[in-house]
Amino acid sequence: MSQSRPPVVARSVLVPFVIVTSLFALWGFANDITNPMVSAFKKVLELNNFQASWVQFAFYFGYFTMALPAAIFAKKYSYRKSIILGLALYATGALLFYPAASMESYGFFLLSLYILTFGLAFLETTASPYIMSLGSEETATRRLNLAQAFNPLGALGGLIVAKQFILSNLEVERIGQEAYGALDATAKAVVRTTDLAIIRNPYVILGLVVIVMLVLFVVVNMPEKEEHDDGLGMGAAIKRLWRQERYAGGVIAQAFYVGAQIMCWTYIYQYAESIGISNADAVPYGVAALVIFLVGRWVGTYLLSYISGGKLLFYFAIGAGVMTLLTIFITGYVGLLCLVGISFFMSIMFPTIYGIALEGQGEDAKFGAAFLVMAIVGGALMPTLQGLILDVGGSAYTDTLILGVPEVNFSFVLPLLCFLVVAIYGHQVYSKFPAPHVDPAPPAPPRP
């Protein structure tokens, strides 16, 4: 009789597995509730597009700041302690929305988001390997994929909360931007105070939920996986990594990919508004983009059984580029649908780049993964540049024409350039570094 295979999740670690898996939903929620906030802060605080884009800069720059310290902390102490610290930072950032709203300070809101993503960097750097450690190595990848399935649920939850509890309730949306700008100072202050409280409340509730999770991690008997000094040394490992063209190129490609993803998912609301669709009514298009993204990931995962990771990355980047060109040069509702369709081709990019860059790195992969998480800084830098393009001619989205299309359409030339960088990397990988197999292991952290 053949020996039975080990379970994906053993009964003895089921409770810890469920608790850690919930973290995947928590950071998915934070990511996708924040994308519509660029437009919300712009309207309530009467910002231009560049100023509003600092929401994404503050959010994603936190990853760049804290990813490597998170990896060092986890290596010195343990995954569990790293997650506890990450939850503490996450909760602190979310709860700081309360004094930020009381002070009506945009800078304070940005600081809150920056601190919040310190926590997300700790969670994303450590939760995935912790999940993989909760059982047999034979079932580690299946266990991580199971946990990853809860990330998009959190992302959808973030979009739903943004629509139902924030965008649909903003007074500035009800009265209209032009009427809001025409109010006297006293009336405008009343609307601003009300709307900032509406933006604040979901984040404060989120902070309280995160505190509950933190308490669970403290009181529940969670398995410890201590990291020990392997004698390799961080400096030597980093030097080895950056000498490799495949790894260094992967970090660069990852930064451009994340920048493209955040631009396409953030400015879908501005694109929709330019054709007469309100922010609240544009949320279903954001949801559709996420659903199409997940379908693309399933299709892409299947295709990786037959096509090498580098080649499929190249094909999908070309597909994304074509859809972006259509988004730029087809105005109106069809252009919006093309923007939604880009998500299908973005679907496999993050995990594929991640896997290709780390394949065969051994123990160096621990620090290599941190730089790939730091590459999320692309999501901080690129949206601000797109905001500058949107401000050409004024703070509206159709103030002027560039190459015969409104500036909101033309601004998607930046994602187009990003996909070009990804395509070049994919081509180099499959032409210069033919893989011995087509599965770009190890699995990536579950960014949707």
From TrEMBL:
Domain of life of the native organism: Bacteria
Gene Ontology molecular function terms on file: fucose:proton symporter activity
InterPro entries hit by this protein: Lfuc_symporter_FucP (IPR005275), MFS (IPR011701), MFS_trans_sf (IPR036259), MFS_TsgA-like (IPR050375)
Membrane-traversing stretches: 12-30, 50-71, 83-100, 106-123, 144-166, 203-220, 247-270, 282-300, 312-333, 339-357, 369-389, 409-426
Cell membrane among keywords: yes
Entry-linked Pfam families: MFS_1 (PF07690)
Protein localization: Cell inner membrane
Entry keyword set: Cell membrane, Membrane, Transmembrane, Transmembrane helix
Main localization (coarse): membrane
CDD domains linked to this entry: MFS_FucP_like
Gene Ontology cellular-component terms listed: plasma membrane
Membrane topology, record value: Multi-pass membrane protein
Keyword Membrane: yes
Protein name (record): FHS family L-fucose permease-like MFS transporter
Protein's organism: Neolewinella aquimaris
